[in-house]
Design brief:
The chain has about 100 residues and is an alpha+beta fold. The protein has a domain at about 1-25 and about 65-85. About 30% of the residues lie in helices and about 15% in strands. It is built from three helices and two strands. It has helices at about 35-40, 40-55, 75-85, and strands spanning about 15-25, 65-75. It has a two-stranded antiparallel sheet with strand order 1-2. The protein starts with 16 loop residues before the first strand and ends in a 16-residue tail after the last helix. Bound molecules: zinc ion. Zinc ion binds near residues 6, 9, 11, 74 and 77.
């Protein structure tokens, strides 16, 4: 049986487990493509990468695409995360009542 621990608080997740998937990708506006962008010879770049890998036997690929992250959270941390996905929730901020 696989045991998961919460990536935020570090505690073992006993009951409900939540996963948070985050994708970080550069925002590209297709209207901003220039002819120079289209001139890049991707096959040539890939061939150079492969030959570099063969010569060094290293598989450290450069960051090429979107970065995908996945976290396991316990129910409590998931609740906290959902309220503030970008970590802006300040614990010192006073609670204003809306009445
Ligand atoms: Zn947690």
């Amino acid at each position: 049986m696989i045991h998961y621990s919460c990536d935020l608080c570090g505690k073992k997740i006993r009951n409900e487990r939540y996963t948070v998937k985050v994708e970080i990708a550069p925002a590209v506006d297709p209207d901003e493509l220039t002819p120079a962008d289209l001139d890049v010879d991707h096959l040539q770049l890939i061939a150079e990468e492969i030959s570099a890998m063969e010569s060094t036997a290293e598989f450290a690929l450069p960051e090429t695409g979107p970065q995908q992250l996945q976290f396991d959270l316990c129910a409590r941390c998931c609740h906290t995360y959902a309220r503030s996905p970008l970590g802006r929730l300040s614990p010192t901020r006073p609670n204003f009542s809306h009445n």
